[in-house]
Amino acid sequence: MGFPYESASWDVVDGAMFIGAGGAAPGLYTFVAAVICVVVLWKGNKSEHDCYAKVEK
Amino acid sequence: MEEQLAELAAKLAAVESKANVTNTMFAETFYYITIPLMILIHAGFLAYEMGASRTKNVLTSGVKNILAFAFIIPTFYFFGWWVYWGFPTGLTFSEGPAGISGAAYANAIAWGWGESAQYMGPNIVDQASGVFFGAFALFAATTASIMSGAVIERIQTVGFVILAVILGSFAWVVAAAWGWHADGWLVTQFGVHDFGAAGLVHAVAGFFALGVLIVLGPRIGKFNADGTANHIAGHNMPLTVTGLMLIIVGFWGFLMACVIVPGEAWSWFGDKPSTIYGTPITLSALSFNILMAIAGGIIGAWIWTKDPFWMMSGALAGIISCASGLDIYYPALAFIVAFSAGLILRPCADWLERRGIDDAVGAVTVHGTIGLYGVVMLGVFASGFPALQGVAGEAPTISFSGQVVGAVVFGLLGFVPGYISAFILNQLGMLRTPEAAEILGLDPTKVPAQGYPEGIPASLQPAE
Asked: N or C end of chain B: smaller count of CB under 10 Å?
């Protein structure tokens, strides 16, 4: 990933200072985080309905 | 002489620089502190609705409340923050008169990718975006918590989380963009003033909950065949009442976060605090009026009920009824308005119950009805006050009709999405728990832990 400024010193930092700043990484991380939320809800719903099915038997 | 002047100028510049650093750190710290204070609201709602649940459902109520918080934060990050900046001028997404709204502006500061990502993460020259985001994300979590208590003991967990996201990261945010932003069309065109979010947080959440409750239906055993209602008591009234008190503690942070501090590039003024509308406010004003509103609400509720649950709900109702005008009410008037809110609280809740609505904690009444009541009451008492910073004759003023318009819009912004999204989830089989699970209890059905492993007396209420 690398330090997002030309010189590896905090002295030159004058803006964003996070990992992946200035590139495509923040968008990728945001996308992955969003996908995690959706998948967890999908899996959670399936698991919840399995529990209901056991009780209804 | 020139040397002395140069030395003096250098010293002055150094002092000015230090003053700026102090002011910036103060501003950042001011909003940072509101975040843990508002987390206390969430802690309060957690205790409140767990206490209001029967032992067989207590952990399920906790799980869904915790999950609401956990899903609101990232979804507000993904798109909720964009909605607040993109929507103020309505569905045109154009830039408003203050120049801090519209799709282009929101695209530049509120997406977690591209150029705008610099404002959505650590940035050495931006000490405002993160704390503003945090405060707004906690407002969002509060709206979801308000709905959470109303639907306990029969809603599915994932279905509830989806509803919480729709409410917390979209519905109330649209209300905030329209009525709680210098470019919001309700403000610029109708002079809507809702300083402490009585309408745009509380009423939106309360009416969203009502829309959900209509589709969700009552708990088994709540109503008899003849339509009369049974009281389903929670298992721990002291926990519920303590939770309500925690919510009130957290509200000091919530209302503090509604103040814009002075002296920063984004402040309205260099030398005095303001509301989000650029109108005057002081923390002293808040202190006077919040305290008087709490007292008025408790006393008003005590008259009818003598019940600590409703007395503490009265305290909340007191704050909510005055929230729109906490910046300009006279304390004794705040007491009167809050007292009247406390007085009507229980009759309003009973009225709703007689219509077959099972609101387990009175959230629709406390937040929805009283929220709208507060928005309208400000129109009664504050007509003619400038609603927004600006030149006399140009700045919109508060009016009764404007506040009524705001109240109707806020009510609809809650109810319509609540009803529609609950209807869709119901069609998908994701809203209501099966009858067998509800009768057995949701904890033994789906939570791998026990609320009281050493036991306390079992529920003795209808429909066990």
From this structure: N
